[in-house]
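A protein record in our archive is deliberately plain, so that people and models can read it alike. The tokens are whole numbers drawn from a learned vocabulary of local backbone shapes. For reference, a complete record is included directly beneath this paragraph.
>
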Amino acid sequence: MDFTLHTTFPESIAPEWNVLLEHTATHVPFLRHEYLHYWWSTRGGGEWPEAELAVVTARQEGHLVGVAPLFFTANYRSDAPHPQNPELLLLGSVEISDYLDLLVRPQELPAFLDGLLPFLAGCAGSQLPAWQALDFYNILDSSPTLPALEEAARRMGWRYVHEKDYHAPYIPLPGDWETYLAGIDKKQRHEIRRKMRRIENSGLPVRWYLVTDGSTLDSEVDAFLGLMEQDAEKANFLTPPMREHMHLTARLAFDNGYLFLAFLEIAGVKAAAYLCFDYLNRIWVYNSGFTPSMLDFSPGWVLLGNLLRWSNEQQREAFDFMRGDEEYKYRFGGIDRFVLRAVVER
């Protein structure tokens, strides 16, 4: 494999990049070329004001066979293995890209990593600053990258560790609303039905809808952010760079056909919203917001119930809650899994 370091984002390889992604074990929207390109343009919504790009591509006979989408930071977190040591992280880290990984076919992982690690070591102090660790967040526990990286690090004589970082529950969907409901806890099934009936029988005009008009997308995203910021923690999260990132993410998802932005309106008031992706025949739940004044109607539960009903009717195969162990995810039938953090120190 021939390895190349890119210190500016390689825009020209977008088609090759996304085709390669289709053959990886972690085919997720957060690894698409356009997503990571925009992520880098805002430095993760302001999470990384000081960072240097370090995307590595590998080719065989001219064909793109691997991408390590990385960036360099001098010092990230106090809980890093050596807090003062510079690191290479995956683009998309850490806060706003739920699942990350390397882009390479599973059968080519060992060869790719056996070339990548010495290549990165050779770049340290010359083409790259003198990094000391690879610190990879948000890798699904099922990813073949984890055992392959451990073996490659061992062959280099480097130290490898990993740890569970976040819960990431999901719901396999049977393709039928009543079958789905029959598969969850009886008490929770009753609660979902009761809350959905209550709003339907309230006498108020109620509707939920998906945003499908690109000309209104910016205003709809602003409305969504307005619901998010009703929560104090989310309001602090929504800095100006983060707002820019959210708008860019929604726009690129819309332009590429996988935005799933849903609102619930009660008496003409936007009461709840979910920003998701409809990608690879599953729904990926990215973020949400609701109006506290409508809390008596349980708008978040009602909208989520409608989205799960729609997803079953449209034969989506899964409803992915992604990172976070909020209780409601399990009440709706979420099955637990984890994303891991893997660290290699040289």
